[in-house]
Amino acid sequence: MRIPMNKDQLQFLLSGILFGFLVGYIIAYAVHEPRVVQSATPVPAAGNLGMSGAGGATSAGQPAAPEGGTASGPGGEQMMAQVFQEVTALKSAIEKNPKDAAALVRLANMYHDAGKYQDAVTYYKKALEIHPEDADVRTDMGICLRELGMSDDALAQFRTSLSYSPKHWQTWLNLGIVALFDKQDLALAGEAFAKVEEYNPNFKDLPLLKEALKKAGAATPRKSS
Asked: Could you tell me which of 31, 44, 27 has the C-alpha nearest to residue 177?
């Protein structure tokens, strides 16, 4: 049975975020774990911790299509409608209660996963006005800022996050990636990756990042004495 789309849903579809929304939505809410920024490719959704562009690493595989069809098939149309319905419901909840932090974060995460980073930042900021100490939310907003080319602002958000949660390994990880790949600050990146190793020694892509840091150090010209 097909679920019909109204005019607003069709306009949403035509905004160009279809596949990012669907894939990101599936990953983000199937696994509850904060995002990890990549070095030179779009940010994966929550739970997808594969790295790419860092020392030759490859990204994690795409999730399997949901039972009943692909994003472009019959099952995908039903899934699209469900996503659109949730977006509408979240926006309605926020209109009724602008302090609904859970709705703000969920909507921000959906925009994040769709690659609509500026929209995500807007809702993350509103959520942080309510709960400024939320390290997950602040880190995700920092990732969005980085994707918007605002690396310095991203680093500022990561540092603020760490002021609330000094052992938040995802913040250290993203700080290190921005420091290494965007700012070429090898000392800061080294400090950040050391913290990741301390707080989450089993993070599977840590060796790749450490190798990328090592290669960057070897490629940096030494100052003559």
From this structure: 44
